[in-house]
Design a protein that fits this description.
The protein is of the alpha/beta class and 231 residues long. The chain is built from 7 helices and 7 strands. It has a 7-stranded mixed β-sheet, with helices on both faces.
């Protein structure tokens, strides 16, 4: 899928600390005009994954967070053009604004696709996935909510894997292999297809909310799509 119309090009890296405050966000029921299980796409960029996920999961509301205003506008315009009432993007910083945006136990899925690696040590504080982000996400996750992560940067993939493994309330869905070999969401991203087309490796991680107090699997969860053999 090409970039949604009206989105245009954008810088690959953007400092998340440039967005510290946001206007009072709308309630989720007002934003989507219906109550439904919520999927969150952190750093949705041009929105191809978000829109395809919304089309593939019409029973869900799919919310993208992005720190670039022109991309937020472009994603929402593309969702309207495709008549996807269950897809929206908001201008927000996931590292700062989660508690203001989402009700407790509302998330069935969280995705983080190809986050900026921020290689320089002094810039690593800008990385999205951290123990602090996971702590903020925890009360927002519903029973057996899934957390999907993808990157093309091997060292970053391993660091993110270690951060996720350190959370006792998250369970790796592919414990016999370091990374999942196929899409874990059933929806490919444009960036993923680009790397695979070049013969490059995509590192995929899938972790599940392992809340001991909840043992019922939601019927709205799609089946896990994992390759059984290690890479």
């Amino acid at each position: 899928m090409t970039a949604p119309a009206g989105v245009g090009r954008h810088r690959r890296h953007a400092n998340p600390f440039t967005l510290r405050t946001i206007e009072k966000p709308p309630a989720m029921d007002d934003l989507f005009a219906r109550p439904a299980p919520l999927a969150l796409d952190i750093g949705c960029g041009m929105g191809s994954f978000l829109l395809d996920l919304a089309a593939a999961q019409p029973a869900w509301n799919v919310l993208g967070l992005e720190i670039r205003p022109h991309l937020v506008a472009g994603v929402n315009a593309a969702a309207a053009a495709r008549e996807l009432g269950n897809a929206r993007a908001l201008l927000a910083n996931a590292n700062v604004h989660l508690a203001q945006l989402l009700p407790p136990a509302s998330l069935v899925q969280v995705s983080l696709n190809f986050p900026d690696p921020w290689f320089k040590r002094r810039h690593r504080k800008r990385r999205v996935l951290s123990s602090a982000l996971l702590a903020n996400l925890r009360p927002l996750l519903g029973p057996v909510a899934q957390l999907h992560v993808m990157t093309d940067v091997g060292p970053l993939a391993e660091e993110m894997r270690q951060v996720l493994l350190a959370c006792p309330w998250l369970r790796c869905a592919h414990p016999e292999q370091r990374y999942a070999l196929q899409t874990t969401t059933g929806v490919g991203s444009e960036r993923e297809r680009t790397h695979l087309g070049r013969g490059e490796t995509v590192y995929r991680l899938l972790f599940v909310h392992n809340d001991a107090q909840t043992a019922t699997v939601s019927p709205l969860r799609p089946p896990l799509r994992l390759c059984p053999t290690p890479q």
